[in-house]
Amino acid sequence: MIFMYIFETYLDIRQYGALKLPSLPKQLEGVVSHEKFEKSKAYSLEKRFISSLSYFHFIHEAVTIVMDTSILYFGVLPWFWKKSGNFASHMGLNSENEIIHTLSFLAGVMVWSQITDLPFSLYSTFVIEARHGFNKQTIWLFFRDLFKGICLSILLGPPIVAALIVIVQKGGPYLAIYLWAFMFVLSIVMMTIYPVLIAPLFNKFTPAYMYGFFKNKRIVLYDTLIQQCKNEDEVVAVIAHELGHWKLNHTVFSFIAVQIITFLQFGGYTLVRNSKDLFQSFGFDTQPVLIGLLIFQHTVIPIQHIVSFGLNLVSRAFEFQADAFAKKLGYGKLLRAGLIKLQEENLSTMNTDPWYSAYHYSHPPLVERLAALEDLESKKED
């Protein structure tokens, strides 16, 4: 974890240097105004690196790594596990029941995470975002959405956690298959009900959105897209790009890849599920299901970073393909104009370090997408 923190901080420093460059990339010279470039640079620097009070991003990341490392090193997890069992007993619940004990533990974790993350969320939303004109929330809406999210967790979390515990307890030699099958069904259900039941709790929708399966598919256009692309043909060009993802089965491929990775993760978990040494090395004298999953996730963090990097590379390739699809439909120039306008209006980063971009971005930077569109245009002319 510490090594990954150091490596990612190094990438942040590289990106900081790119953001401090005084001029636009060549592809954007004469296209993006100097005023927009300066605003984008100021916003990117403040959001990612500098605030008026501190180096916001660096402090947030440093606090996170210190807390996570301290929790592991000082045995906070086993201590908190025992305390959550005592709390459940104090409330008149049967803490010997692993499901009840686990839910008590998760309730405490949720409270702790909300408390520790709230100051950073408030500062990011109501100071940094507001300063650059992006915050559309009032403090009331912020806490209302936070409350809705907590309620959803309370409603959906317990049955899912209970099912996972029962599956692990009774899974036997085919545990990995049962866990994967459960998560597969759950993901299908969530993708089906999300656009119909969950998304409308946080946003107001009029017909549009592309999401979901079968009859529950939705096509959504964010109001900001419509406002920023005043030319309707540019909006159509952006939709052509999104339809390219559908036509080229990118969603299906991504879904299958996630299912394979999920199955491999559960397979790895089953190999260490009954390892007393693993639990004891983290300070546990029992082997709770949820704790086993948490410990396993910590031990495979380096692999998760590598997998995430690989998925980013695939996602970036998909974006180029979707752009090419829109170009093939005759929307190349309009897509180019739409992407530039969105980049300007959202104050997105103009200069990006290639290492930082490759590691963090699931979408290629604008300059790379424009260069790819230009290459397609030149090949067409040849």
From TrEMBL:
Primary location group? endoplasmic reticulum
User: Cellular location of this protein?
Assistant: Endoplasmic reticulum membrane
Known CDD domains for this protein?
M48A_Zmpste24p_like
Sorted UniProt keywords:
Endoplasmic reticulum, Hydrolase, Membrane, Metal-binding, Metalloprotease, Protease, Transmembrane, Transmembrane helix, Zinc
State any single GO MF term. metal ion binding
Q: Which domain of life is it from?
A: Eukaryota
Its annotated function is as follows: Proteolytically removes the C-terminal three residues of farnesylated proteins.
Q: Which residues form the CAAX prenyl protease 1 N-terminal domain?
A: 15-204
Where does the sequence pass through the membrane? 58-81, 146-168, 175-202, 252-272
Q: Where does Zn(2+) bind?
A: H241, H245, E319
Q: A GO term (biological process) for this protein?
A: CAAX-box protein processing
Q: What is the lineage of its organism?
A: Eukaryota, Viridiplantae, Streptophyta, Embryophyta, Tracheophyta
Catalytic function, reaction form: Hydrolyzes the peptide bond -P2-(S-farnesyl or geranylgeranyl)C-P1'-P2'-P3'-COOH where P1' and P2' are amino acids with aliphatic side chains and P3' is any C-terminal residue
Topology in the membrane? Answer: Multi-pass membrane protein
Enzyme Commission number(s)? 3.4.24.84
PANTHER family xrefs: CAAX PRENYL PROTEASE 1
Question: What detail does the entry give on cofactor binding?
Answer: Binds 1 zinc ion per subunit.
Give the family from UniProt: Belongs to the peptidase M48A family.
What is the name of this protein? CAAX prenyl protease
